[in-house]
Amino acid sequence: MVISKQTRSKIDAVIAKYPQARGALLPALHLVQDEYGHVSKECAVEIAEIFEIRPVEVMEVLTFYNLFFDSPQAKHHVYVCTNLPCSLRGARGLLRQLESQLGIKAPGETSDGRIFLGHEECLGACGYAPMMRVDGQYHEVLDIEKAKRILDSLGE
Amino acid sequence: MLETPYVTNYLTEHFGEEDYPTIEGYERVGGYRAARKALTEMSPDEVIELVKIAGLQGRGGAGFSTGMKWSFMPKDTDRPKYLVCNADESEPGSFKDRILLERGSHQMLEGILIAAWATGASTTFIYIRGEYAYPADQMERAIGEAYAKGYLGENVMGTGFRHDVRVTRGAGAYICGEETGLLESLEGKKGQPRKKPPFPAQYGAFGMPTTVNNVETFSHVPHIVEKGANWFRSFGTEKSPGTTVFGVSGHVVRPGLYELPLGTMLSEIVFEHAGGVPGGRKVKGVIPGGMSMSILPAGQLDVPMANEFLHERKTMLGTGGIIVMDETTCMVRVASVISYFFRDESCGQCTQCREGTGWINKIVDRIERGAGEEEDLEVLLDVAGKMEGQTICAFADAAAWPIQGLLRHFSDDFAEHVRQRKCPFAESFEL
Ligand SMILES: Cc1cc2nc3c(=O)[nH]c(=O)nc-3n(C[C@H](O)[C@H](O)[C@H](O)COP(=O)(O)O)c2cc1C
Ligand code: SF4
Ligand code: FES
């Protein structure tokens, strides 16, 4: 058993809210990932048992969606939106500058595994461009100084 | 962040008030009166008829009549019926649903309740894109408040009507905005769109009769029930009544949200409301309805923002996401960004879509690098033409239209790249 008791009971509670248990699969994957930062092979197998489906079915779903990870992740995730509205307002220049600040190429992570820098598609913030999503939080109407301050303020 | 709209109307007028997202704040300005009226004074058929007469059209992109859609739900059935609220908002250029969820949570819930009454649905699933963490939390809070007040649950407002609302978070896939991709995802599967028929009204979520509506569509409903069809029709055009929340982005002085009647001139939105292009530069082109719609060149902005007029210019209202590009913009780079997105997000089920989106992106990038040939323009049109109307879902059309539009109005930009064997737009936004 790798999934904690608390998470397991949360999963059971969500399952009860759907007409078919399988409806709770995405919520369950979110819950497991909230706890561990990714969904490991072992967790996927256990989730398959809970939902009475084959592990490969869990893996298929896991890999279809961009927000799920099947391997351990950097501590902090920084995504700059580079879709058209954001690009028109300098998002790609911002991304280049953050790359040189961190000394890496996006998508990629710092050698100490602390920060992952990548780009993302439209995040529904086009009117407040350029923007980035850092550890799930939106930061909008950025300029390079503001973006650097946000990176500097990330904890260990 | 998330500024309240620069121009407000009935949907967004209270969005600046701090307590409006709470049930007390919402009720203080008359909230939930419309639901009470529908549930106690109107039959389900009367509600459907009212919404039909009001002429409300879906605000999720396709613009289908909402009252008609509700009337497709089977009446004499023992099977449970469901509503789905499409809060997947991922169309590039669209950012209206986010604020409608965050600030107008109860307005949308009230619309859902009225729709549930009209269609006889027992449960609503609100499917929110995974990145919208705060809007999802806020919706959960609002739903909790509505249960506590007896506006949701076993006995809604003491009428004996039962309705439950659940929030499901997506996990980052544009295609889950397409309604049957959404249904698959809701069922815990890959978000691959279904073949139609059967349509959701026959075979929807978990195999049950289902109606899918957009966040904004639901949000209009309480106003129609409270103030009537004639009042609703006093906004907008004969064929496209009501307001909508336009999102303006790109090269304008005041990017942001503007709630305006349908039929407002595109030029008025771009130049007067959003302040035109900064730095005295000129407009080159405008995408009027989210990135899947065809672009309009600067000379064609004198068009009312309603489908009956936009169709004449071979484009559509879509989600009302207006993307403005100034005269420095390289339209081949625009095509590159657009085609990359569609290549990346194709779910891969249909050959024309999977292969076509990849091809288009490859050819466009070749042209941008200065390695394109004259024939490439023909090939692009040919590939895009073969993607239209041939696939399981409208994603492939959405991928073809913007490319066809760019070639229709800006083929010189493409040709110039081929001729000069490089990108001639040094001032353009970076790729
Ligand atoms: C590729 C694709 C993506 C879509 N994305 C969305 C979306 O994010 N939100 C939305 O409401 N509708 C989206 N739609 C439209 C839905 O399929 C559906 O028509 C809509 O949710 C119906 O609601 P309405 O009638 O209230 O507009 C999309 C359609 C396609 C083909
Ligand atoms: S058209 Fe594209 S996105 Fe739609 S089902 Fe076919 S492959 Fe998937
Ligand atoms: S394009 Fe960046 S948030 Fe929409």
- Are there runs of chain B of 5+ residues with pLDDT below 50, and where? none
CATH superfamily of the largest domain in chain B: NADH-ubiquinone oxidoreductase 51kDa subunit
- The sequence of SSEs of chain B as H and E is HHHHEHHEHEHEHHEEHEEHEHHHH
Mean pLDDT of chain B: 97
Please summarize what this structure is.
The complex is a heterodimer of chains A (156) and B (431). Chain A has 156 residues and is an alpha+beta fold.
Main traits of this protein?
heterodimer, A: about 160 residues, alpha+beta, Arc Repressor Mutant, subunit A, Glutaredoxin, 2 domains, 7 helices, 5 strands, elongated, B: about 425 residues, alpha/beta, Rossmann fold, Ubiquitin-like (UB roll), de novo design (two linked rop proteins), 3 domains, 5-stranded mixed sheet, binds FE2/S2 (inorganic) cluster
Note the topology.
The complex is a heterodimer of chains A (156) and B (431).
Chain A: H1 5-15, H2 25-36, H3 41-51, H4 55-64, E1 76-81, H5 84-88, H6 91-102, E2 108-109, E3 115-120, E4 132-134, E5 137-139, H7 144-152
Parallel strand pairs in A: 1-3
Antiparallel strand pairs in A: 1-4, 2-3, 4-5
Helix pairs in contact in A: 1-2, 2-3, 3-4
Chain B: H1 23-28, H2 33-41, H3 44-54, H4 66-71, E1 82-87, H5 96-102, H6 105-119, E2 123-128, H7 133-148, E3 164-169, H8 179-186, E4 210-214, H9 215-227, H10 229-233, E5 243-250, E6 256-261, H11 266-273, E7 283-287, E8 296-297, H12 307-310, E9 321-326, H13 331-345, H14 351-368, H15 375-387, H16 395-420
Parallel strand pairs in B: 1-2, 1-4, 2-3, 5-9
Antiparallel strand pairs in B: 5-6, 7-8, 7-9
Helix pairs in contact in B: 2-6, 2-9, 3-6, 5-7, 6-9, 13-14, 13-16, 14-15, 14-16, 15-16
The complex binds flavin mononucleotide (FMN), iron/sulfur cluster (SF4) and FE2/S2 (inorganic) cluster.
